[in-house]
Each structure stands twice: as C-alpha cells, then as structure tokens.
Amino acid sequence: MSTARSLGLWTDGVNSLPTGANNAITDVPGVTVGHRTLQGDGLATGVTAVVPHQGDLFRSKVRGAVEVINGFGKSGGLVQIAELGTIETPILLTNTFGVAACTEALIRRAIEQNPKIGRQTSTVNAVVCECNDGQISDIQAMAVTVDDAFAALDAAAPGVVEQGAVGAGTGMTAFGFKAGIGTSSRHFSMGKQEFTLGSLVLANFGRAGDLTLPDGRRPSPNDVSAPEQGSIIVIVATDLPLGDRQLQRVARRAGAGIARLGAFWGNGSGDIVVSFTTADQVVHEGPDFQTVQMLDNDHIDLAFRAAAEATQEAILNALAAAPATTGRSGKVFPSLADWAKEQQR
C-alpha cells in the first residue's frame, strides 16, 4: 500500500509534529477501524466503521462535536451531536444511499447491548456520514445492507488501517484522481503528558486540476473541466481532554488541512468533520452533576496544528493508496501514485 510519505508527496517541515506508531487514527488508544468492501456487477462501494472505544458506547458516551464546512450532504445523527456534545454509537461511513441501512444497523446493535433503549430509557442517536460514489458505482443498486454494516463493525481492529479504495472509499474520487479512505496521526506533549490526535477521511472532493502538493507541485489528471461537486467526511479522534465546544474548534481546523491541498468547498460539496475525545467520557443516566475535564484554551494550538496536519496527510494517503479506476461512464480516474512514480524516473 503506497502512502504519501513512501511516494515523496509528504515531507515533514521544521515545525511538523511527529506521527503516532501507525500514522493512523487507531494510534489514539481504544479507537478501531473496520471495512466492508463491495465490488463486482457494477458495484464499487462499501462501509467503513470508526469505533471510539471498546466498551458500551451508549452507556459510556464520548464527548463529540460536528463542524459543517459546506452542508451539501445527507448524513445522520449530526444534529444531536451538535446539540448535546456527545456520541453514543460507532461512526459509519458509506455511500449516499447506504445511510438508511447503516443507521438501522447501528440502532439494532445498540439495542442488542441495551434492550431498554426506546422503552425504559432514551432512544439512540446513530451517526452515519456519506459521500456519493455514483461516478464509479451503481448507487441506484442500493447495495449496502444492514449485514454489510455489521461486517464493517465486526472487522474493526486496532493497528494499521487499510487505505485507498476500500470500504466506504471503494468508489470515491478526489481532484480528478481515484481516492477513498485515508488516515494519519500526530503525537504531542502537554506538560508531562503525551497525547495523540488522528484523522480519518472519506475523500471524494476537489476540482480536477486544483490539487496542490505540500511542495507546490500541481499534478493534473487528463480532464480538468469538471466542477467541484464532491464531498469529504473527516473523523478526528484524540485522547486529549476537551470540552465539546473545544472539539468543534479542533474540527474546524481540519478545514485548514483540506484547503492546503487546493480545495475551495464548492456549492455542490458536502464537507463535514466529526470530532471526539476518548477522555472524560459521559455516563448515561449519571449523577445530576458531572465534572468536566478539559484543556485550558491557552494551550489548544497544538491540537489545532495536529488536526490540520493529520487531515492534510490523510487526504494524500487516500489518493496515494488508490489504484487507477474506470468509472461507469468510461472515464478513467488515474492514480496519483502512478503520477508520483513517473516523476521519480
């Protein structure tokens, strides 16, 4: 699997933060990622699961936030995250028409763990985000099922994350190139404590010809006439104790990482960031007053930098790992890795 670093597309600057062990969102302790890939018979789609921790998420919620950069999207569960500042299910990524199946899967899985949901206690807020993979996959086939979502959840694991044309990223494109799932992480110290922030992206955005690499090069695919009509979903995870308002501020900085690569978030682009911290979890039906542990705002700049850097590199990794692919109309979406290797000759 090619990465931005292995292809020479990413070089750490003087002030760059170090990566975690796997340079992935799974470097945040407890976070796991799983994929379910669907290919064949006109299909190139799937589901990707991001699981914040290995306990009962409904009973032990993570603090979370959402930042809608441009809202041309059909995701589920974002309104309650914005209102309450917590996340109580895994986060599923899929194609636009797979949102309903993934939502049902999250609800059913939560009820299995907590049979009182919707009866003796509150309902559950399933979090699903999407991008449109219709240029490559037959989205009208409604191929993603509840079982596919279960498979992605069951495949969630720590360690190295498969990237590129896999899971929800199987049919996605970016800047005119084939793209998909990408991830990266940053490690930093505050006082005597060590923390990690990771970003995972579903990259399906960017006008062809606008991609700008960190060294200033601008690789162009053959066709640069298409408008900006894509989307990107960014999941930012950290173990740094942050309040939900601070998490939204961190999520907003993921937009800096997107913009550094040349995107301007066009009218038809759905650009959404969901962030969470595994620290200071919120107990369901807890005491009347709960203590909140959070970073002093005067020290939050490191988290801002980490979010921007990790998101930028995650997008490049999504591009670097994806092979050239022919779309449903016969249009070829080239591989950025092939372009990079040609430049090295």
From TrEMBL:
Residue stretches in coiled coil: none
UniProt cross-references to CDD domains, sorted A to Z: DmpA (cd02253)
Top-level taxon: Bacteria
Pfam short name (any one): Peptidase_S58
Record-linked InterPro entries: ArgJ-like_dom_sf (IPR016117), Peptidase_S58_DmpA (IPR005321)
Family the entry assigns: Belongs to the peptidase S58 family.
Protein name as it appears in the record: P1 family peptidase
Organism: Neorhizobium turbinariae
Lineage, uppermost ranks: Bacteria, Pseudomonadati, Pseudomonadota, Alphaproteobacteria, Hyphomicrobiales
